Automatic annotation (TrEMBL):
The family this protein is said to belong to: Belongs to the TRAFAC class myosin-kinesin ATPase superfamily. Myosin family.
Pfam families in the record: Myosin_head, Myosin_TH1
Domain TH1: 938-1124
Protein name in UniProt: Myosin IB
Alphabetical keyword list: Actin-binding, ATP-binding, Calmodulin-binding, Motor protein, Myosin, Nucleotide-binding, Phosphoprotein, Repeat
Subcellular location: Cytoplasm, Cell cortex
Domain Myosin motor: 17-703
This protein's GO CC annotations: brush border; cell cortex; microvillus; myosin complex; plasma membrane
InterPro entries cross-referenced by the UniProt entry: IQ_motif_EF-hand-BS (IPR000048), Kinesin_motor_dom_sf (IPR036961), Myosin_head_motor_dom-like (IPR001609), Myosin_TH1 (IPR010926), MYSc_Myo1 (IPR036072), P-loop_NTPase (IPR027417)
Primary localization class, coarse: cytoplasm
Protein's GO biological process: actin filament organization; actin filament-based movement; endocytosis
Length: 1126
């Protein structure tokens, strides 16, 4: 008996430890939820589903569930087909993106230490493993994966909860082509915890890069950066947790440098980044002392100027400029400037503000620089998979501004999570034709409105308080909240005049409490105003802008004196709210996939499950709410085919094979099992089961049936085994019997030798009779055979004699006919000669005088007649390029023959020209000009000779796609074609529309038709191209012209000969400008902005086949590889 493929697969419901999908948990309560998680965690099952949501518990140890074999096991499998795993979610998202063209996003949330970063790495590594292969694809995958170590070094730190805690939110869009191969990505970062740069809580470290630099850099590098290895030398580095067990900072530094090289950082860029990191460390060592002035005011001064000097040398800043920025502050208002001194406290504030801004801007620059390397180059639409790794909900003993905006972001994520989950459920019900019933759930939109409302929201009031004149403190901000939010049901404060909270001693006077979806959180207002302002004194910005360092000017653009902006920069809260709004809009356009990460204990130890800690996370992640939403309608649904395959053995009508449609089979099955009709519903492609008890009933019946089937299989196997043994014995018995009979015959032959004489004589007589009969029968047969052979020979002889006689008669008749024909011919010849003789005798007297001349003239006339008739029948074609001509028959006609050939060619050319229109004449004039420009100079020219110069290859007037662009151009378009514009940075190409008129060259976007560049022809100085068979050409612009700001243009076209010819012809016909110079060389210079780049053409087989490839070798060389001509 054989079983189908579906029967041998491991299902989500097979061999379950606990319940693999919380939707099926029965009964559903918080205690049973935790008990199921703990049971699975104790058996190393760290993944559990809530529908399509994955719950992930951090095991704090390595598990053998991420091997290449596991990747192949989950590849192209149904989500519920195997046991819960993060690979199942990654595969479902990737296949939906590749096969259904749906953009995806994977939202990973959880508190610090729950394993969010590792989860995002696992998702990316799985996608990298299952997508396509190839040199370019592997390079993109490697760059995407290697961006993680760089961002972790600069954005992660050791905390009390996690040795590698992400202190920023990260969202990465991975872009794929139509085949599902990665093309690149874009990273967005949110809310770097820059306060960690200047101060770390006890037991925690600063960002990894500081310790990695001091531990892993060589002595020469540290000397160049003016650093020492001793951590205790730097005030910004905490010493109690400087070294972490299990973290090798030196090895990680080498890993980071290697990752930066793979991503695409140049050596000077890496050096510049490390110089800024060293400058931050030096900045933390600056101490200030008070110095009294004559007006009685205290002014801050730098105590030890050695660190200041070294930092200024690293950044290329004059020491006096930066020292003054730490002592004075300039305030500008309209046309007035007021300079005030800074006291010691203000100087320390300015130092820390500069350190935080310098590091956070460096981090943002790193993200931007990584994006430049990994971003997809093609401008066409891509499929996108987003991966969001962001802080989870945070409830600490002391919650401040950072926790407030983090929890605000999680409120928005919870809101979109509930909305998208409900929408997904509703869309599936509608798609399957199931009646949708409204689901009651807690809508946290009221909490989001409390925080983000533009008028009365907490963030709006915080911004308003920061921007208003007068004395602004955290207490005035709290007073404003108490006034405006007093009646809000989710806002609590001791000072909001609400009697319910006046005697609540758990609520301090300088705090307020918000009832989030995950629970109540107490926020201390101290520092809210200062952290929201995030001010950096303008004097420090301007001092930074004066630096000679290559990066500093980019990081502090507001310090440019020529672009002074008196407006206050946007607050931190405003910027974060805008970022969250953009993120939510991005997520709304994608199909969501959720991973909820949970930390099982605070000790970062394996095999420990702390109930209270996990219960707290289950509550603030809203997992119970999620289960209730999924179970509000039908708890379980499954396609008809796998459902029938799984349960078909429960009904005699469907077992072992059902030949009809799968839905009918499921209907027969459910009717036979007598499942109540209200417990399930039939969709278009799935069956929906309302209660988990029904599903468990089916599973129990299936388990019993499988046991019965196992017994049946055992019975059949044992019967087959016994039957096989019996057949083997039977076969053996036959063999033994055969051998025995053989033995018996031999035995009888031996016994015959001892028989009596009478029996021997009788036996001999019988043998003699048999022999005589055989000989007699043989004699009779031979006689009959001889008789038949004699008759056949006689018949053959008669046939041969008759054929010979007929042949003899035919040959005699042939000889007679031939003889008669010869006689008739002889008579005719004799008669002809006789007639000739008589004629010659009669007319001889008339030819004696002029016979010679007449015969000569007659001969010449006949020769000429024959010559002209032969010439007429052998004339060449009417094509002017046909050089063939009949051979000369007689030497005396040599002059005539040559003259006739010349006259015929002239006449043929005249006839050919008479057919030309004016447009065709112009085309042939262009062809002639192309010949003068390129013949014997460029290898591409011979292949262009047979090609017609069409001009408008895009049919601008007829094509509705380009009608708007065509109407926007007043002049007549002489040439319209698609060319490739070569990117100056990396040598890659992007398509552009190339339009040529009598006055200008226009480059437009191929997709939108928007004009990108318009170049007046008088601004062109020359056109450069190579001698080889490529289509590259450079439009060089005159120095000082208005079009030369961005530099020259390097283009590639399949119609290069036509484009350059038309450009040259237009300039030749124009009387008011110089003729365009055409330079044909395998090396020429092109001006790209401020740099002159050499374009060099080499021969060889490029990596991408037989096409031409272009690659930027360095800042001064662009190399074009042209395939060798066959």
């Amino acid at each position: 008996m054989t079983y189908s493929k579906m029967e041998v697969k491991t299902s989500l419901l097979d061999n379950m430890i606990g319940v693999g999908d919380m939707v099926l948990l029965e009964p559903l309560s918080e205690d049973s939820f935790l008990e199921n998680l703990k049971k699975r965690f104790d058996h190393n099952e760290i993944y559990t589903y809530i529908g399509s949501v994955v719950i992930s518990l951090n095991p704090y140890r390595s598990l053998p569930i991420y091997t290449p074999d596991k990747v192949e096991e989950y590849r192209n499998r149904n989500f519920y087909e195997l046991s819960p795993h993060i690979y199942a979610l990654a595969d479902e998202a990737y296949r939906s993106l590749r096969d259904q063209d749906k953009d995806q996003c994977i939202l990973i949330t959880g508190e610090s230490g729950a394993g969010k970063t590792e989860a995002s790495k696992l998702v990316m590594s799985y996608v990298a493993a299952v997508c396509g292969k190839g040199q370019e694809v592997n390079k993109v995958k490697e760059q995407l994966l290697q961006s993680n170590p760089v961002l972790e070094a600069f954005g992660n730190a050791k905390t009390v909860r996690n040795d590698n805690s992400s202190r920023f939110g990260k969202y990465m869009d991975i872009e794929f082509d139509f085949k599902g191969d990665p093309l690149g990505g874009v990273i967005s970062n949110y809310l770097l915890e820059k306060s960690r740069v200047v101060k770390q809580p006890r037991g925690e470290r600063n960002f990894h890069i500081f310790y990695q630099l001091l531990s892993g850099a060589s002595d020469d590098m540290l000397k160049k950066l003016k650093l020492e290895r001793d951590f205790s030398k730097y005030n910004y580095l905490s010493l109690d947790s400087a070294t972490v067990s299990g973290l090798d900072d030196a090895a990680n530094f080498r890993t980071v440098r290697n990752a930066m090289q793979i991503v695409g950082f140049m050596e000077d860029e890496m050096q510049s980044v490390l110089e800024l990191v060293a400058a931050v460390l030096k900045l933390g060592n600056l101490d200030f002392k008070p110095e009294s002035r004559c007006n009685g005011m205290d002014e801050s001064r730098v105590k030890d100027k050695n660190d200041l000097k070294e930092m200024c040398e690293l950044l290329g800043i004059e020491q006096s400029v930066l020292e003054r920025a730490f002592s004075y502050r300039t305030v500008e208002a309209k046309m007035e400037k007021v300079s005030t001194t800074l006291n010691v406290a203000q100087a320390y504030y300015a130092r820390d503000a500069l350190a935080k801004n310098l590091y956070s801007r460096l981090f943002s620059w790193l993200v931007t620089r990584i994006n430049e390397s990994i971003r997809a180059q093609a401008k066409t639409r891509h499929k996108v998979m987003g991966v969001l790794d962001i802080y989870g909900f945070e409830i600490f003993e002391d919650n401040s501004f950072e926790q407030f905006i983090i929890n605000y972001c999680n409120e928005k994520l919870q809101q979109i999570f509930i909305e998208l989950t409900l929408r997904e459920e509703q869309e599936e019900y509608v798609r399957e034709g199931i009646e949708w019933t409204n689901i009651e759930y807690f809508n946290n939109a009221v909490i989001c409105d409390l925080i983000e409302n533009n008028q009365n929201g907490i963030l709006a009031m915080l911004d308003e308080e920061c921007l208003r004149p007068g004395t602004v403190t955290d207490e005035t901000f709290l007073d404003k909240l108490n006034t405006i939010c007093a009646e809000h049901q989710h806002f609590e404060s001791r000072l909001n005049k609400n009697s319910k909270f006046l005697n609540d001693h758990s609520l301090p006077h300088n705090c307020f409490r918000i009832q989030h979806y995950a629970g109540k959180v107490l926020y201390r207002v101290e520092g809210f105003v200062d952290k929201n302002n995030d001010l950096l004194y303008r004097d420090l910005s301007q001092a930074m802008y004066k630096a000679n360092h290559s990066l500093i000017k980019q990081l502090f653009p507001e310090g440019n004196p020529a672009k002074v902006n008196l407006k206050r920069p946007p607050t931190a809260g405003f910027q974060f709210r805008a970022s969250v709004g953009t993120l939510m809009g991005n997520l709304q356009t994608k199909n969501p996939n959720y991973i909820r990460c949970i930390k099982p204990n605070d000790k970062k130890a394996a095999h420990i499950f702390t109930d209270s800690l996990v219960r707290h996370q289950v509550r603030y992640l809203g997992l119970m709410e999620n289960v209730r939403v999924r179970r509000a309608g039908y708890a379980f649904r499954q396609a008809y085919e796998p459902c029938l395959e799984r349960y078909k053995m429960l009904c005699k009508n469907t077992w072992p094979h059902w030949k009809g449609p799968a839905r009918q089979g499921v209907e027969v099955l459910m009717t036979d099992l007598q499942v109540p009709a209200e417990e399930f519903a039939y969709g278009r492609s799935k069956i929906f089961i309302r209660n988990p008890r029904t599903l468990f009933f089916l599973e129990e019946k299936r388990k019993q049936c499988l046991e019965d089937l196992a017994t049946l299989i055992q019975k059949i196997y044992r019967g087959w085994k016994c039957r096989s043994h019996f057949l083997l014995l039977k076969k053996s018995e036959i063999v033994v019997a055969a051998w025995y009979r053989r033995y018996a015959v031999r035995l009888l032959s031996k016994l015959s030798s001892i028989l009596p004489p009478e029996l021997k004589y009788q036996k001999k007589c019988e043998e003699a009779v048999t022999t005589i009969a055989a000989f007699w029968h043989g004699t009779q047969a031979r006689r009959e055979l001889r008789k038949l052979k004699e008759e056949a020979r006689n018949k053959h002889a008669v046939s041969v004699i008759w054929a010979g006689w007929q042949g003899t008669k035919a040959r005699r008749e042939l000889r007679r006919l031939k003889e008669e024909a010869r006689r008739k011919h002889a008579v005719a010849v004799i008669w002809a000669y006789w007639q000739g003789l008589k004629v010659r005798r009669e007319y001889r007297k008339f030819f004696r005088a002029n016979a010679g001349r007449k015969i000569y003239n007659f001969t010449i006339q006949r020769i000429m007649q024959k010559y002209f008739l032969g010439l007429k029948s052998n004339l060449p074609s009417m094509s002017p390029i046909d050089k063939s001509w009949p051979a000369r028959p007689y030497s005396f006609l040599e002059g005539v023959h040559a003259e006739l050939r010349r006259i015929f060619h002239l006449w043929r050319c005249k006839k050919y020209r008479s057919q030309f229109t004016e447009e065709k004449k112009a085309v042939y004039e262009e062809k002639l000009e192309a010949s003068e420009l390129f013949k014997d100079k460029k290898a591409l020219y011979p292949s262009s000779v047979s090609q017609t110069f069409k001009g408008d290859y895009l049919e601008m007037v007829k094509n509705p796609k380009y009608q708007k662009l065509s109407s926007a151009i007043d002049e007549k378009i002489l040439l319209a074609d698609v060319v490739n514009k070569i990117n100056r940075a990396n040598g890659k190409s992007s398509p552009r529309l190339f339009l040529l008129t009598k006055k200008s060259v226009i480059l437009a976007d191929q997709k939108t038709g928007q004009v990108k560049t318009s170049l007046p022809l008088p601004d062109l100085s020359s056109v450069s191209t190579s001698t080889q068979s490529d289509g590259f050409f450079a439009l060089k612009l005159k120095e000082g012209s208005s079009s030369a700001v961005k530099g020259d243009f390097l283009l590639s076209s399949d119609h290069l000969i036509e484009i350059v010819t038309k450009l040259h012809r237009i300039s030749s016909l124009a009387a008011d400008r110089e003729k365009l110079n055409v330079d044909i060389s395998d090396e020429f210079l092109v001006q790209f902005k401020q740099d002159k780049v050499c374009v060099k053409f080499i021969q060889g087989s490029p990596k991408n086949g037989n096409s031409v490839s272009c690659k930027r070798k360095n800042n001064r060389l662009l190399e074009v590889s042209v395939p060798t001509s066959p």
